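Narrative of activities, Objective 1.

The group set out to show that a structural description can be obtained from nothing but a protein's sequence at a throughput compatible with the screening campaign. Below is one input-output pair from the validation batch, recorded exactly as produced.
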Amino acid sequence: MRVEKMMLDDNGITYTIGGVKFRYLFENKPALKVGQEVEFTELIRKTRPYLIMGAETEKQMEG
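Output recorded for this entry:
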């Protein structure tokens, strides 16, 4: 899968990969770049994101 987008904020970084958002604290973040191909299951196993958000989760949080 390809890294579609990444966003930085004060506490960490959020990657969008395959339409799913993965949130990482700065100390746990993987070194990914937009457009990079990644193995989805390997990414999760190695880096353990502390929050995974899909489109449905975002809609619930907004509204």
